[in-house]
């Protein structure tokens, strides 16, 4: 598909056809958003799918692996589970395993995490003065695993030009391509 | 005729759908399997001390020391969709201040293909057994359990308890001698 024939297609479209193409592009974007928001409702997690960004859980999870999370409030956190949590002052959530847990009779829980591949626990990663995580810090619990798929997002984040090129190509393709 | 781009595109799309299909079959063929097996464990030496916890609050907390025996055969748990087992030995107990305490004392990663028959005698714990306060001295019911987190090639990430546990009690006096 060279550029000459591509724009021939556009030239042959009338106004209605062009608007139709723009609308179908909008449909794709909004249905992707709806699926994401729908997953948030179903899983109870603010970020139902995360990409592993570090090697701190190797050999279980490598960079670019995909994790599916749930965060149901009625399911208690227990030791040995893999939690994804946010720490104040860090933008990127961390995926680590719960090592110690203390639960009071009124239901308040505090726990300590550690990466499988790290030799020490996470107290050094937490906010200064923070010794424990609580339920509010948790984004979700890892429930499902899919290898390599997240590599695409890592590539896109590390090479922003690549991201814009891919987005532009997809956008042009959807706008120009006639069914 | 089809252009090079179109041929490449259809080959890539076909390869990706075949991969996705195979991954799903790999997941579906193992999702209903039972991953429970027996484990025998026993404590050998059990001591409790009362020392300042410099890693956390700096207050004097109870610190338990124990050595344990562990016997289990996990060979039967491995199949083509088990990448690794993350084994962990948990001490679970109740104290006046906390309704539930869980502390991981020891863990081990077993990759598929590695020796999965474990027979440990008089093992030291890998992590310190700090209590959140002074609830270990004279505690009559500490339960040791072995669990594993199954990491698949693609699929769910279940945490499974071994059948078999061991309960022990801590001595009623602190040990002051060095060990």
TrEMBL record, chain A:
NCBIfam families: sigpep_I_arch (TIGR02228). It comes from Phaedon cochleariae. It catalyses: Cleavage of hydrophobic, N-terminal signal or leader sequences from secreted and periplasmic proteins. It comes from the Eukaryota. Belongs to the peptidase S26B family. The chain crosses the membrane at residues 18-36. Its EC number is 3.4.21.89. Residues 36-111 form the Peptidase S24/S26A/S26B/S26C domain. It is a single-pass type II membrane protein. Component of the signal peptidase complex. InterPro entries: LexA/Signal_pep-like_sf, Pept_S26A_signal_pept_1_CS, Pept_S26A_signal_pept_1_Ser-AS, Peptidase_S24_S26A/B/C, Peptidase_S26, Peptidase_S26B. Keywords: Endoplasmic reticulum, Hydrolase, Membrane, Protease, Signal-anchor, Transmembrane, Transmembrane helix. It is found in: Endoplasmic reticulum membrane. Catalytic component of the signal peptidase complex (SPC) which catalyzes the cleavage of N-terminal signal sequences from nascent proteins as they are translocated into the lumen of the endoplasmic reticulum. Specifically cleaves N-terminal signal peptides that contain a hydrophobic alpha-helix (h-region) shorter than 18-20 amino acids. PROSITE patterns: SPASE_I_1, SPASE_I_3. One of its GO terms (biological process) is signal peptide processing. GO terms for molecular function: serine-type endopeptidase activity; signal peptidase activity. GO terms for cellular component: signal peptidase complex. This is Signal peptidase complex catalytic subunit SEC11. It is an enzyme of class 3 (hydrolase).
Automatic annotation (TrEMBL), chain B:
It is a single-pass type II membrane protein. Pfam families: SPC22. InterPro entries: SPC3. One of its GO terms (cellular component) is signal peptidase complex. It is found in: Endoplasmic reticulum membrane. The keyword ATP-binding does not apply. The chain crosses the membrane at residues 12-36. One of its GO terms (biological process) is protein targeting to ER. Keywords: Endoplasmic reticulum, Membrane, Signal-anchor, Transmembrane, Transmembrane helix. PROSITE patterns: PROKAR_LIPOPROTEIN (PS51257). Belongs to the SPCS3 family. Essential component of the signal peptidase complex (SPC) which catalyzes the cleavage of N-terminal signal sequences from nascent proteins as they are translocated into the lumen of the endoplasmic reticulum. Essential for the SPC catalytic activity, possibly by stabilizing and positioning the active center of the complex close to the lumenal surface. This is Signal peptidase complex subunit 3. It comes from Phaedon cochleariae (Mustard beetle). The lineage of its organism: Eukaryota, Metazoa, Ecdysozoa, Arthropoda, Hexapoda.
């Amino acid at each position: 598909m060279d550029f000459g024939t591509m724009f021939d297609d556009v030239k042959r479209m009338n106004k209605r056809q062009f608007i139709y193409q723009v609308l179908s592009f909008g449909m794709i974007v909004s249905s992707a958003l709806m699926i994401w928001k729908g997953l948030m409702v179903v899983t109870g997690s603010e970020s139902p799918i995360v990409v592993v960004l570090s090697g701190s859980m190797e050999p279980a999870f490598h960079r670019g692996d995909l994790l599916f999370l749930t965060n149901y409030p009625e399911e208690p956190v227990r030791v040995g589970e893999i939690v994804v949590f946010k720490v104040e002052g860090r933008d990127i959530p961390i995926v680590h395993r719960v090592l110690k847990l203390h639960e009071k009779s009124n239901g308040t829980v505090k726990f300590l995490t550690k990466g499988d591949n790290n030799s020490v626990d996470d107290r050094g990663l937490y906010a200064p003065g923070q010794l424990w995580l609580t339920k509010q810090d948790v984004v979700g619990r890892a429930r499902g695993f899919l290898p390599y798929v997240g590599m695409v997002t890592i590539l896109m984040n590390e090479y922003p030009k690549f991201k814009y090129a891919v987005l532009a190509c997809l956008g042009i393709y959807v706008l120009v391509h006639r069914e | 005729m089809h252009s090079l781009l179109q041929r490449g595109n259809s080959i890539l799309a076909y390869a990706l759908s075949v991969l996705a299909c195979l991954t799903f079959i790999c997941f579906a063929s193992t999702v209903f399997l039972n991953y429970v097996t027996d484990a025998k464990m026993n404590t050998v030496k059990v001591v409790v001390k009362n020392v300042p916890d410099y890693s956390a609050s700096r207050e004097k907390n109870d610190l338990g020391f124990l050595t344990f025996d562990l016997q289990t055969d996990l060979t039967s748990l491995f199949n083509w969709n088990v990448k690794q087992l993350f084994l962990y030995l948990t001490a679970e107990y109740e104290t006046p201040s906390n309704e539930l305490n869980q502390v991981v004392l020891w863990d081990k990663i077993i990759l598929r293909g590695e020796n999965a028959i474990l027979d440990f005698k008089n093992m030291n714990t890998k992590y310190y057994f700090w209590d959140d306060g002074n609830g270990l001295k004279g505690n009559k019911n500490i339960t040791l359990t072995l669990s594993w987190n199954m990491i698949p090639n693609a699929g769910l990430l279940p945490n499974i308890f071994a059948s078999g546990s061991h309960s022990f009690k801590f001595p009623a006096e602190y040990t002051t001698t060095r060990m």
